[in-house]
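Final report, Chapter 2: Outcomes

The project's central promise was a pipeline that accepts a single protein chain and returns its three-dimensional structure in a standardized token representation, suitable for archiving and comparison. That pipeline is now operational. To close this chapter, we reproduce one record exactly as it appears in the project archive, with the input sequence first and the structure output second.
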Amino acid sequence: MGFLGLLEMGSVGSTMAGDQDNRPTREQYAVQRLSLDEALALFLRQSLDLLTTKYGIETAEAKRITAGLFPNPEFFIKTLSSYTQNCQLSDCGAINSVLSQLFVVAGKRGFRIESAEFATQSAEAGFEDSLRQLGFAVKDAYYRVQVARRHLAFDTETRDRLSGVVKKMMEKSQRIGSDKDLLRLKIQLVDAQKAMIRDIQQIDSDTADLLLLLALPPETELELTTDLTFMPIAPDITTLKARVEVTRPDVRAKRLLYAKRRAELKLALAIRYPDVTVDLGFMVQGSKGPDNQQQWTFNVGMPLPVFDRNQGGIQEAATVVHIAETDLRQTLNEAQAQVDLAYRHLVQSRRLVEAYRAKALNAAESLFDRVKESYESGDIGILFFLDAHKTRNDIQEAYLDALYNYQRHLLLLESAAGQVMS
């Protein structure tokens, strides 16, 4: 079938309507009605990514508990025996029981606890940072679905409008040049149908992303109730950049990691001092042993730091401290740069949305209505009508994209600043 035959089949848009009605839907499955806040709450309850990060906190907490434990005492039983003529083991032997305890000195246990506590707090801050990043992903996916549905609604309206014009043209086929006009309109109708297919595919893709983030089955039908609207916001960039060190959880996590490394350096310095082992023992001898058959023993021992004074460990710990400090400064610089860039993009996108709302949208719609009326009355030709129709469509589609971009840049600024804009 040729291109003209395809145009004839879609002259009134019935083909596209039938395709849309017969395309696979999720209507046979449960419908999930969600506002943006409800979607975020569901994400917090069901996100597998957050659950994985939460396990990191529990692991760090377990290490903190381990760091606070004292070394276990050790208990030994030693036997001594003298094999002499006519001497039984029970008469000439001895049993020595020893209880040994290691005492950690120089504050090593306290440094280990301090390091583990900083590690736990850093893991908690890392969890907050995962929530910040994944929360942005949920909001962005939510609004991507909404703007794609707005595009589909507009393109469907365009298709229906063109179908109505085509019907009127077919009823007035006696007009001079009407066959060429009808052909041009059918071409525009095919373009509108193509745009609808593109919108449907985009909705399916964005919906799949949102369902994955919410840990919902892919068959779930989503009914999103928070619309994509324009709320002009002008945040104070100076305040945002000044507070980013406090509000950004990844910066806080790096600061806590830096504190952990410093605690590890103090521990490495303390390892130079040897720990002390204390032994307490009691020995019982046989009847043919020395006169004093019951003896107590008390021993104190420690390694002598002659060769190994943890020189390598101290140097390694000091280097790690410098790395953590550099990483902290780098993360803070990146956070401030992200806030600055997101703010500038927000301001520019807000101006664009305001420009569309102030002039372009109403002007394009008014122009199209006047041109359509003139075309239907025969005062102007099809080319003027198609040009006004294209201008109206381009302005409306561009406005929807600008509205989404503004909302996305607002979300990016919230994520970069680590706080909600109001």
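Archive annotation: The two ends are 57 Å apart (CA to CA).
This record, like all others produced under the grant, will remain available to the consortium after the project formally closes.
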